[in-house]
Amino acid sequence: MNQTSEITQSKEPRPPINWPGALILLITPIAALILLPLYLWSHDISMAAWIVFTIFVIWTGLGITAGYHRLWAHRTYQATWIVRFMLMIGGTLGIQNSILFWASGHRTHHQHVDDIDEDPYSAKRGFWYSHIGWMLRNYPSGEANYKNAPDLLNDRMVMFQHNYYIPLVLLTNIVMPALIGWAVGDVWGVLLMAGLVRLVLNHHFTFFINSLAHMFGTQPYTDENTARDNPWLAFVTWGEGYHNFHHIFQYDYRNGVKWWQFDPTKWLILGLEKVGLTYNLKRIPTLTILHAEVAMKFKRAEANISTAVSSYGHDIHHDLELIRHRFKQEYEAFSTTMNEWKALKEQAFLLKKAEMSQKIQDADLRLKVDFRLIEQRLQAHGERLEIALSGFRFGKKAG
User: Fold this and answer.
1) Is the pLDDT of residue 387 over 70?
2) Distances from the Cα of 15 to the Cαs of 11, 142, 336, in angstroms?
3) CA neighbor of 59 nearest in space, from 92, 17, 82
4) Are 107 and 119 in contact (CB under 8 A)?
5) What DSSP state is assigned to residue 221?
């Protein structure tokens, strides 16, 4: 959108206040800031309250990440009734509207990411708007439109929660903590910690993905949108911080795709699969992920070379020629690898259409070996590119 249209939009009257959302999102943190110190003035937080608080924080967080997000918004896996029920209750604890509203809006976000008119929480409109502002007023981009969610409209559990959302919110956020508090002998401590303080923390941890994860971090897979990978955010969002990966591969049940990346939501889904409680886990092929990663390295290297040429010209001419030569060689090898990969994919497709026989099984085994070799070559391309560029610091004169 051009500057003129942005100015025009800024002069338009503000949408009406979304009173339910505004009251919850503004009153709860103020209440927590007032009530917690007052309570601590004359009481200690009991061990029971801390335990219930911890359980509720985890339950709410995973209800949003494993439930609202990866199960219902993106359908990255399927789950049994009991898992879906527990995730539905956990998501309801989060008071982030119903599954239907949340998931539908999130699908719109992916479809129109960064569009300041269509994306419900576009980061292009600033931190405050993407973090919380979009929920305080009835912006047109945030209006409910369930045309992109026919599957959810036909989901009985989703519609049950949607139709009885307010009673379920009251039961999960007030009645349930109060009953647990009564059972452990600390009603007010549990209500304060597992009810109020937990809710405020879970709210803003989730909202960080809409705001900070589109502003701070790295872009190892794509720079076509503002989404970033941020491992620090992953620690407070149950693995959702690897947002650059998620925006290019939204149908993968993993966000932290590397084995060492902190993604407890992924581990929960995978662990439940081992005992038969989740199934049909969707995974983007490793080669597809590697292709995006290595292609991004080439794109960034090419941009760095162009920047160095425009900045220093002949001062670093010799070094640049060497870098350019190695870059060209590596890119040609990369292109060859990708052409071979495409040919292998066509062979694999034709093989799946053929009737099974021992001969075809042998061919399938050979294809698996060939795909593994392609994967190794892709990794090598990325490593060699980094080595080729490591001795040259762009933006500084050689020597």
Assistant:
1) no
2) 12, 11, 54
3) 92
4) no
5) S
d(CA 243, CA 186): 39
> Which of 261, 279, 297 delimits the end of a domain?
279
216-241 per-position pLDDT tens digit: 999 999 999 999 999 999 999 999 99
**How far from chain centre, in Å, is Cα 386?**
27
What is the rounded CA–CA span in Å between residue 344 and residue 374? 9
Top mean-pLDDT range of 137-151, 304-318, 350-364:
137-151
Instruction: Note the pLDDT of residue 285.
Output: 85
Is pLDDT of 318 > 60? no
* 303 pLDDT above the threshold of 50: yes
Phi then psi dihedrals of residue 137, to 5 deg: -130, 160
Q: What confidence category does residue 302 fall into, taking pLDDT thresholds of 50, 70 and 90?
A: confident
SS3 at position 79:
strand
Please check whether residue 254 lies inside any domain of the structure.
yes
| Co-location of 267 and 291 in the same domain | no
Distance between CA atoms of residues 354 and 131, nearest Å: 51
Q: Which amino acid appears at position 397 of this protein?
A: K
What secondary structure, in 3-state letters, does 318-344 show? HHHHHHHHHHHHHHHHHHHHHHHHHHH
Residue 66 within a domain? yes
For residue 229, the cross-strand partners are 218, 242
Residues in the chain, overall count: 399
CB 273 within 8 A of CB 280: no
Instruction: Give the start-end residues of each E strand in 226-303.
Output: 278-279
Domain shared by 215 and 152, yes or no? yes
- Residues 261/235, Cβ–Cβ less than 8 Å: no
Which domain does 113 fall in, by range? 3-279
Q: Does one domain contain both 255 and 355? A: no
Q: Are residues 264 and 352 in the same domain?
A: no
d(CA 260, CA 256): 8
Quick one: tokens of 398? 């050689």
For the chain, the domain total comes to 2
